[in-house]
Amino acid sequence: MVHKNSKTLIVQLFVIYSIFISKALSVPTPSKKLVETAPAQFTPNATPGGGGNKYLDSPHFRMYNYTSVTVANSTFKSLEAAYTCFVEDLGWRSTGLSYNGDSKGNLNDAGPYYKLNVYNVGGISGAAANTGTESATGLAFLNIVTQYLNTPSIFVHEFGHALTYCEKYWIDQVRTGAWWETIANFVADTYLTSSVCANGRAKYGQAEGDTLIDLNKVIGDSFQVMVDGTQNSGNYYQAWPFFTYLTNNPDNYAGLGWSIFPSVWTKYSRNSNETPLHVLERLASPTRIQTAVGRYWARMAYVDIGHKKAQALFQKNRKNFNYANLDSLGGGKYRVKAARQPRYMGANIIPLKGTGAVTASVTAASNSPFTATLGILAANGVVRYLDFVNGTIQASVASGEEATLVVANTPNALLLYDPFKLTADLNKGLDYRLELTGVTA
User: Fold this and answer.
1) What distance in Å separates the CA atoms of residue 223 and residue 11, rounded to the nearest whole number?
2) Among 62, 82, 214, which Cα is nearest to 155's?
3) Beta strand residue intervals within 5-121, DSSP E
4) What is 208-247 written as a DSSP string?
5) What are the helix (H) ranges across 260-412?
6) How many whole angstroms separate alpha carbon 256 and alpha carbon 261?
7) Cβ-count burial of 307 within 10 angstroms (0-12 exposed, 13-18 middle, 19+ buried)?
8) Biggest CA-to-CA distance, the chain
9) Taking the model in full, what pTM does it have?
10) Residue boundaries of the structural domains of the chain
11) Which residues, 6+ apart, have CB-to-CB distance to 61 below 8 Å?
């Protein structure tokens, strides 16, 4: 028997559930202005990238030099799904809009709206795809090597660059340079795996994909500068989980969540050449960005950042990661290895052995600032995080639980730095000693 008010009750429950999910994910409401202004079909513009005589269209994209209608349409579906997610659902600025502003640098969101040009190319030296721009129109365009037109992780990454270009204020700011790759991989992984893009994927019949996370790098080299653009050893393509943490905001910091986008660009101090951490510091207020960095690394000890696929991959491979951060001095005393001292906004992740009453003390050379956290994983998979106070903590690790200690290098003041040209100050590690009772490292 169906209650006469059951439909009303179902609707009410759905609304309540939707509100709960929206708050939990901190997803912003897209600007009504942009939604109402944008036409259903954007206008073609052959100028970015040079155009061509052979092309196919979708509502927001045009592909030149296509070799297969089937492949081109497959690429369009992924790109349109990503567009739906980031622009229409999350409210990022449309890639159809020019990044050229007025004399004061202000952007025009009224249009016209142009299709993002995509070029099928035979090859690119050292790359599967890249993103170009055309200064007269202020529009980006994508070049994709033919064999990767069925690989969304490649071309949605480039779409992430186009999203950054259309927001303008990171362009020609050297200290943002390496972070462009961090953001682009964040965009690609979010599109492939996150529930916030489920609507976009479903709209265009796209399946959820695999995560791009490189845990060997993120965890094994967690001591590196937060975003390090050093050739052949840097982490700037792999550092994107920091943004997954900031947007999912599992610690419910008031200044964080999905609202940091597009603010990370729009609130960037114009032509300041500041780092993205500086704008994040303002966005995170009243939470100190150092606090968020410290807790991010603490959560990465168990990949507890609201990313189920990444966490499952961690559980499967966790025994393979490099945790050799310390040298034993005997008697429960340790010193961080010189080569693995945490650098600027980097960290050491230190699994502990044993249960029972635990005391831990961290002492940094020259009283250098740091953030230390003890994460205790319960048998049910829930992690509790305990902050060190004045470098010390006391806790109890029950039978069936495990603990990991994390020490992050979080200086009191943010540094201005070019990730592609790290200075000695950036690469100076946090030299510290650790003393443990009740457990061992």
Assistant:
1) 49
2) 82
3) 55-57, 61-64, 116-121
4) P------HHHHTTTTTS-SS---TTT--TTT-THHHHHHH
5) 260-266, 276-284, 289-300, 308-317
6) 10
7) buried
8) 75
9) 0.92
10) 28-203, 222-437
11) 76, 79, 80, 83, 115, 116, 117, 118
pLDDT digits (tens, 9 = 90+) for 95-118: 999 999 888 888 999 999 999 999
Tokens of 310: 């990444």
CA atoms of 361 and 372, how far apart (whole Å): 9
* Cα–Cα distance for residue pair 348/342, rounded to 1 Å: 6
Per-residue pLDDT tens digits for 287-315? 999 999 999 999 999 999 999 999 999 99
- Amino acid found at 336: V
Instruction: Say yes or no to pLDDT of 6 above 90.
Output: no
pLDDT above 90 covers what percent of the chain? Answer: 90
Residue type (1 letter), 340: R
What one-letter code names the amino acid at 98? Answer: S
Q: Which two tokens stand for residue 180?
A: 């462009």
CA distance 403 to 396: 10
Q: Are strands 61-64 and 116-121 parallel, antiparallel or unpaired?
A: parallel
**294 burial level (CB within 10 Å; 0-12, 13-18, 19+):** buried
